[in-house]
C-alpha cells in the first residue's frame, strides 16, 4: 500500500492533522505506526514528539488542492416533486404567542440557464386564529412567485431570477383583484403591500436572501464526503431575518457528513457571529426591551440534515431548523421539512428502491432532534 507523508509544523497535534485530512487521530496513529520505523512510533497521546518530523498518511486520504479527494455530484431530483412542510412558532416569556403550519408541493425541472420551480397545492394546516386572515392574504400575494426561473451559480446558489416580468404582472393582478379591498380596510395590510412592492421591484435579491430558497437549493454542488470534522461550506451567506424581514443576517455555514445503509447524510450548522447582529439591537430595544425586561442577547442558528440516496446522489429528505433569539424572553423558531414524493420514472435507480427506503418520517424521528429547539 502506498502512502504520503505530512511534514509536522510547529504547534501541530495529532488531532489537528487528523482534522486536516478528515480522519481520526486514532486512525492516523495506527496507520503511521504500522509503516514507520520503531524510533518514530507515535505514542497514544495527542502531542507529537519533537523528533518526529513526518507523519505517514494513507494515500487515499490525502487532500488534493485543499479539497477532500472524494467529491460527488449531490443534487436535487430535477423532474421530481417535493413536499415542503413549514412550521413556525413565536415564544415570548416562554408562552407560545403564535404558530402556523403549511404544506406545499414544489416541482423542480432543469432549464438551459439553471432550474425552474413550480409551487402548487398550498395548504394552511394549522394557525393561530388571529393570524388566519393575514396568512390568507400573504399566501395569495405569494402566488406571484409560484413559478420561478432561476439562473444558478456553480455551487447551486441563486444568481438571478429570470422571469421578473411574469412575476411583476402576477403581482399587479393580485394586488388589483384581491389585495386592494383589504388594503382599504386595514392599515397593516397597506404596510404589507408597500413592503411587497419594494420586494418585487428587486425580486432577485428578495429570492436570493429568502432563507427557504437558500436551504432548499443548498449549495450541494460543492459537497465532499467524508467530512468527519466541521468543514466550512460558505461564509457570509446573507438571508432576511424571519422575525424582522427587512433586516439581513450573515451566516457562516459548516457541515459534516456520514453514511448510513441507504444514505449519505450531511449535517449543516450555521451561526451568525454576534458582531454581525448589532443592527437588530436598536429594533429590539425600541420595541421589546421595556416590555420583556430582558437585555439584548442575540442567538441566530441554523441546524439541518440532508439525506441523499447512495445510489443516485439525489436529495430524498431534508429537515432544517432556524432559531432567531433576540433575548431569553423573545424566541422565534422555524422548521422546514422536505420529502421527495415523486420522481422522473426514467431514473432507474429510484425504481429499484424498496418500500423501507421510501419512509422519511422514520429517518427524521430517529436521526434529528434539534439541539436548540427547547433549550
Ordered list of secondary-structure elements with their pairings:
Layout: E1 3-7, H1 14-20, H2 25-35, E2 54-58, E3 81-92, E4 95-110, E5 114-127, H3 132-141, E6 147-152, E7 158-161, H4 164-185, H5 187-201, H6 203-208, H7 211-217, E8 231-240, E9 248-259, E10 263-271, H8 279-287, H9 289-292, E11 299-309, E12 315-327, E13 330-342, H10 348-351, H11 360-367
Antiparallel strand pairs: 1-2, 3-4, 3-13, 4-5, 5-6, 6-7, 8-9, 9-10, 10-11, 11-12, 12-13
Helix pairs in contact: 1-2, 4-5
In short:
The protein has 375 residues and is an alpha+beta fold. Helix content is 27%, strand content 35%. Strand 4 and strand 5 form a beta hairpin.
Report on the architecture of this protein:
Helices cover 27% and strands 35% of the residues. With 375 residues, it is an alpha+beta fold. The strands form two sheets. It has an eleven-stranded antiparallel β-sheet with strand order 7-6-5-4-3-13-12-11-10-9-8. Strands 1-2 form a two-stranded antiparallel sheet. The longest helix has 22 residues, at 164-185. The chain is globular, with a radius of gyration of 24 Å. Residues 63-70 and 345-375 have low confidence and may be disordered.
